[in-house]
Design a protein that fits this description.
There is one protein chain. By secondary structure, this protein is mainly alpha-helical. Helix content is 82%, strand content 0%. Helix 1 runs antiparallel to helix 2. The relative contact order is 0.18.
């Protein structure tokens, strides 16, 4: 499950980089991507101490 969350974090990072390189970056989009990436990072941190039920919930999200 940790790998799945890391893949999500990496996807958001890639999207942020692409938006940043755009001729006119969309600040609203970047803010949404940053918030979503942070949520994934928070989930990743929760996995370290999660019981199996909590880990399954994180994976489902």
């Amino acid at each position: 499950m940790f790998d799945a969350v890391r893949a999500v974090v990496n996807w958001y990072t890639t999207q942020l980089a692409a938006e940043h390189r755009a001729p006119v970056p969309d600040e609203t989009c970047m803010g949404e991507l940053k918030a979503a990436r942070q949520a994934a990072l928070d989930d990743q941190a929760q996995l370290a101490a999660a019981d199996p039920e909590e880990a399954a919930r994180v994976a489902a999200v």
